[in-house]
C-alpha cells in the first residue's frame, strides 16, 4: 500500500472535523507540560470543542479548496487544531484564557465564521462572552423593570397598601372643600362692606 493511501483516511478525518465548523483555531503547543495539556484538553472537551494534534501536511491537504486554506501560511512547526461547530468564539476564549497561565501555549491564527484572524484578532474575539452569558445578561436587563415595579408595589403594600391612600384622599377632599367654602364666605363678605 502506498503512503498516500495510508494518509488519505487521516486527511478525510480532518476534513470531516472542519466541515461545517463555526470556528477553527491553530495553536503551537510546544512547551506545555503533560498536566497542562491534559487540563487544556479537558476544558476544550467540556465546551464541546474537538482538539487534535495533526501534521501540517495533512491539515494543508484537508484545508485545500475550503475557506480554511488561508491558514496554510501559519502551518509551520508543531500545530494543534481546535474546532467548534456550535459556539464560534469558544475556542479562542478558552485558548486565550489558558495561554495567560501557560505561557508556552501560543495561538497562531484562526478562521471564525469565514473570516481569518491573527493572534490579535483572536485575542479580541476571546473577550466576547459566551452565548449563555449574553442571554443571561439580556434576560437580566429585561427583568429589571419588572423587578423594580414589584419592589415598589411591595413597599406600598408594606406601608398599609392602597387603603391608606384612599383613606387619606377623602380627608384631603374635605380640607379642600372647607378651604373653598371659606374663600366663598370671604368673597361674599367683601362686597357687603
From TrEMBL:
Top-rank taxon of the source lineage equals Bacteria
The UniProt record lists the keyword Transmembrane helix: no
- Listed PROSITE patterns: RIBOSOMAL_L10
List the molecular function annotations (GO) for this entry: large ribosomal subunit rRNA binding; structural constituent of ribosome
Q: Which CDD domains match?
A: Ribosomal_L10 (cd05797)
The signal peptide here is: none
For this entry, the protein name equals: Large ribosomal subunit protein uL10
- Gene expressing this chain: rplJ
Amino acid at each position: 500500500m502506498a503512503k498516500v493511501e495510508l494518509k488519505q483516511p487521516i486527511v478525510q478525518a480532518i476534513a470531516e472535523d472542519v466541515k461545517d465548523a463555526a470556528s477553527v483555531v491553530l495553536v503551537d503547543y510546544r512547551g506545555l507540560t503533560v498536566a497542562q495539556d491534559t487540563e487544556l484538553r479537558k476544558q476544550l472537551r467540556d465546551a464541546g470543542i474537538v482538539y487534535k494534534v495533526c501534521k501540517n501536511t495533512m491539515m494543508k491537504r484537508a484545508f485545500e479548496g475550503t475557506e480554511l486554506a488561508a491558514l496554510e501560511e501559519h502551518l509551520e512547526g508543531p500545530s494543534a487544531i481546535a474546532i467548534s461547530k456550535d459556539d464560534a468564539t469558544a475556542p479562542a476564549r478558552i485558548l486565550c484564557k489558558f495561554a495567560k497561565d501557560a505561557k508556552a501555549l501560543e495561538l497562531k491564527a484562526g478562521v471564525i465564521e469565514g473570516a481569518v484572524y491573527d493572534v490579535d484578532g483572536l485575542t479580541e474575539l476571546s473577550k466576547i462572552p459566551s452565548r449563555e452569558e449574553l442571554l443571561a445578561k439580556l434576560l437580566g436587563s429585561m427583568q429589571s423593570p419588572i423587578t423594580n415595579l414589584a419592589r415598589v408595589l411591595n413597599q406600598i403594600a408594606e406601608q398599609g397598601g392602597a387603603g391608606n391612600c384612599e383613606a387619606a384622599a377623602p380627608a384631603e377632599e374635605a380640607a379642600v372643600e372647607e378651604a373653598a367654602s371659606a374663600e366663598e364666605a370671604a368673597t361674599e363678605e367683601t362686597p357687603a362692606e
